Amino acid sequence: MTSWHRYLGYAGLIPFIVLSLASLAGIQHAHFFLLSYAALIFSFLGGILWGCSLQLSLAPHVSLVSISCMLWAWLWLLMPGYDWLIPAALSFVLLWLYEWFLLKQRVNRDFLKLRGQLSLVAALSLLLSSL
User: Fold this and answer.
1) Residue 44: what pLDDT?
2) What parts of the sequence cross the membrane (predicted)?
3) Mean pLDDT for each consecutive 10-residue tract of the chain (131 residues)?
4) CA 55 to CA 50: how far, in whole Å?
5) What gap in Å lies between CA 5 and CA 81, rounded to an integer?
6) Looking at residue 78, what is its pLDDT?
7) With a threshold of 0.85, does the pTM exceed it?
8) How would you write 38-69 as a 3-class SS string?
9) How many folded domains does the chain comprise?
10) DSSP track, the chain
11) Quick one: angle between helices 30-56 and 14-24, nearest 10?
């Protein structure tokens, strides 16, 4: 994993942090923009898991989980209100834990460490926005 990958990962947190703070400040539509961005990123993480599943010839349930990420994130956007902020936050943490136990012996630990850091900040941003 290169420094470039880390920079891109951390840059991806900027919308989480800015939109979380904007929602706390009462800026109109900030919750929706945050939840939309979270859904996009969660779907992206499902795509990464799909790639790992194919590359590492993992069990079929891994492909099912990867596709479920996209569908689960889509539900966040279909439901009225912003009650999905907390389930979305928990989803980021649970997906990272799933990946950690599944991939810890198969992929670079720096990747999983970075994923953990990014998921934690994303989850905290969503939780903060739910206040």
Assistant:
1) 97
2) 7-27, 33-51, 58-78, 84-103
3) 93 98 96 97 96 91 95 93 91 97 91 96 97 88
4) 9
5) 34
6) 92
7) yes
8) HHHHHHHHHHHHHHHHHHHCCCHHHHHHHHHH
9) 1
10) --HHHHHHHHHTTHHHHHHHHHHHTT-TTHHHHHHHHHHHHHHHHHHHHHHHHHHHT--HHHHHHHHHHHHHHHHHHHSSSSTTHHHHHHHHHHHHHHHHHHHTTTS-HHHHHHHHHHHHHHHHHHHHHT-
11) 150
Query: What is the amino acid identity at position 4?
Result: W
Q: Which domain holds residue 113?
A: 3-129
The tokens describing 96, both together, are 């990272």
Contact 111, 96 (CB under 8 A): no
Neighbours of 110 (CB within 10 A): 12
Cα–Cα dist 23/88, whole Å: 16
What pLDDT does 58 receive? 87
